[in-house]
Amino acid sequence: MRNFSDIRRIVIKIGTNTLTRNNNIDTAYVNDLACQVNSLYSSGKQVVIITSGAIGMGAGQLSLKKKVKKVKIQQACAAIGQPLLMHEYHKAFSGYNIKVAQVLLTTDVLKHRTTYVNLRNSIETLLHLGVVPILNENDSISTEEIGTAFGDNDRLSALVASKLDAGLLIMLTDIDALYDKDPRIHPDAKPVLEVHEITPEVEQYAGGSGSVFAKGGMKTKLDAAKIILTTGCKMVLVHGREKNIIPRVVAGEEIGTLILPQQRLGNRVRWILHTEPAGVITIDSGAMKALEQKKSLLPKGVIKVEGIFLAGSVVMLNDRAKAVTSMSSDELNLLAGKHSREIRKILGQDRQDVVALAEDIVFLG
Fold it and tell me: What does the alpha-carbon distance between residue 111 and residue 227 come to, in Å, rounded to a whole number?
């Protein structure tokens, strides 16, 4: 038996295929989900839900039978489907006297430390008030191509679990485990019960994307698992339509695939490591050696700046590390190759004399 008895905070991710039937929300399933969550809620657990399904629900309302490819139509479907989706959640959970709250996210919220901290504080407050936060990607206003930012919310669920210091992420999907081959094609495919590392062999297990309106697939779930491996949070991948699946997972039943964390990095380190970089700073070998010795990055070591970003953004340093830069891309272009003493002459006396502090630099791998 798996032991999750000491875990209080649980994130549950529900995929499009699990949540919908015939391109519309499955009301009976949402009602059953509320019943399962209530069993956790009643035992003192805190629950956060990551939901998909808004685009599919909007497409159903518009009677769109084919896959929605144009971004503008996807955004329209999301705008139509999101309030309908939340209405279903509200109806289902109110039957158990549980209040729910909607939180819509874009990648920009998670990229910037201030908005990330605000998000964390907001969700912490909701949980303290006994509310179940329901999160979704804000597809109707996202500036990125829909589906590329979070991958059917798989990556979003791992990021949220990481940022909220959750103990368990339950990923409800339309397959009952990670298999060593695609079970839809290979009858001899075997389930993988535990994963401790995302090796090239494990990555080969990932299949293609799912159904008409889903954006994810096993690959995005393994991408989520890579995040989970650094958090201290456990992740279980299971079939969302199995009877009473959520309480069974929490009770420790050996069902689905369990991804176990390798280490628990600090919250700020995780934020830097898992934030999409806003640009790239190319530095010379001397500067890289200094960083390896836990020293700060100085402008003298900067060779080239790629991308447009503000001070406080997470950027790549060559292909070796990520860092929070204290300067914008415009400022770095002015200072690249110059001595540190010139920073305050050019930018003002209130500015740091480094490009990135040692504690804000995280090496990859």
Answer: 15
**One-character DSSP codes across 247-302:** HHHHTT---SEEEPPS-B--HHHHHHHHSPPS-EEEE-HHHHHHHHTTPPBPGGGE
Decide if 9-270 and 277-363 have a common fold. no
Cβ neighbors of 258 (< 8 A, separation 6 or more) are 2, 193, 194, 195, 234, 235, 236
Which residues are within 8 A (CB) of 291 and not within 5 positions of it... i.e. 6 or more apart?
283, 297, 317, 321, 358, 361, 363
Is 49 in contact with 132 (CB distance < 8 Å)?
yes
How far is the C-alpha of 160 from the C-alpha of 156, rounded, in Å?
6
Whether residue 99 has pLDDT greater than 90: yes
CB-CB contact of 237 with 171 (8 Å):
yes
CB 238 within 8 A of CB 172: yes
Opening angle at CA 290, ends 286 and 293, nearest 5: 145
Fold of 277-363: 2.30.130
Match 């996202």 to its residue by tokens. 142
Whether CATH 3.40.50.360 fits 9-270: no
Which tokens in the block code for residue 271?
A: 């934020």
What CA–CA distance (Å, rounded) separates 144 from 74? 12
pLDDT per residue over 166-221, tens digit each? 999 999 998 899 888 878 788 888 999 999 988 888 888 775 444 434 445 788 88
Q: Name the 3-class secondary structure at 4.
A: coil
Instruction: Please state, in angstroms and rounded to a whole number, the distance separating the CA atoms of residues 203 and 220.
Output: 10
CA distances from 76 to 62, 88, 110, 301 (A): 10, 19, 24, 47
CA distance 51 to 137: 9
Domain locations in the chain as residue ranges? 9-270, 277-363
**Residue pointed to by tokens 């991948």:** 237
Amino acid in position 136 = N
Specify whether the CB–CB gap between 81 and 56 falls below 8 A: yes
Nearest CA to 156 out of 141, 139, 140 is that of 139
Q: How many residues does the chain have?
A: 365
**CA-to-CA dists, residue 108 to 24, 73, 114, 156, angstroms:** 29, 22, 11, 12
| pTM for this entry | 0.82
- Return the axis-axis angle of helices 267-274 and 154-163, rounded to nearest 10°: 160
